[in-house]
Write a structure and sequence with these properties.
The chain is an alpha+beta fold. 55% of the residues lie in helices and 14% in strands.
Length: 255
């Protein structure tokens, strides 16, 4: 068991040495992927903007058919339920088609539905309308049109209730997406992980014996003999009696 743990430790150490030996390739791949991700984020992805409007759900006694429901300010769960009902009305085909007609935007109901979202703010009686669009002015126009249409829409469906505008949408000045720094960081991480994975995979699939250590460590076999380098050696202590030495070769030809 100790021998198995020792071998696993040696394997991990060898992988770490392999990664360290190829650190230049890893650094280059990481940098290249980061630059590619940054270029894609800056030049190829359309920036989007979000315009937001706030609406307040009025607390009063309302009628849902023949049933009357009294909502108090402390009953946040009931207010949350009412907000969910209003959001459904907001995203209905009837409401959004009226928004398209009044604003004159060139969207279908399905396209506008993807752009509009609404939710309660921290579980309160205030809910937020968010419109995401590539055109900041258009995003503001759609958000404010929804905020103006919604009270009448809700009043015509649910008796005794009202919705009021807390804050109208303004033209967004900062894009909501994409995040260039985040995308660049993701690219760097992908480049680092991918390059390390490829290097480790190639090392694990490499079954060629490159050094004496590969033979003794991986196969636990003793070294019986070694073939010295005969060419390219200029040292007088080299094997092969100077076969790689040009002066020695010249003397043998003259003899």
């Amino acid at each position: 068991m100790d021998q198995q743990r020792y071998e696993e430790e040696i394997d991990l150490l060898q992988l770490a040495k392999t990664l360290l030996k190829n650190w230049k390739w890893i650094a280059a791949a990481t940098l290249i992927c980061g630059v590619i991700a940054a270029c894609i984020s800056v030049f190829l992805i359309t920036p989007l903007y979000q315009a937001k409007a706030l609406m307040y759900v009025n607390n009063s006694e309302i009628s849902l058919g023949n049933t009357k429901v009294s909502i108090s300010a402390s009953d946040l769960s009931a207010a949350q339920s009412l907000v969910d009902t209003y959001v459904v009305i907001l995203r209905s085909r009837n409401t959004l088609n009226d928004v398209i007609e009044q604003t004159g935007v060139d969207y279908t109901y399905e396209q506008l539905l993807e752009m509009v979202s609404a939710s309660s703010v921290n579980g309160t009686e205030i809910f937020q309308i968010v419109v995401t669009d590539a055109d900041p002015e258009e995003a503001k126009l759609i958000a404010n049109t929804i905020a103006n249409l919604l009270p009448n829409k809700i009043a015509s469906i649910i008796e005794g209730c009202s919705v009021r505008i807390v804050d109208s949408a303004v033209t967004p000045t900062k894009k909501s997406s994409p995040s260039n720094s985040k995308n660049t960081l993701i690219g760097l991480m992908v480049g680092f992980v991918a390059s390390c994975g490829i290097i480790i995979l190639l090392d694990l699939l490499d079954d060629v014996i490159h050094t004496e250590e590969d033979l003794t460590d991986n196969f636990d076999l003793p070294m019986l003999a070694a073939i010295p380098e005969l060419l390219g050696s200029t040292s007088s202590n080299s094997y092969g009696y100077g076969y790689g030495d040009s002066d020695s070769n010249e003397r043998r030809r003259n003899a």
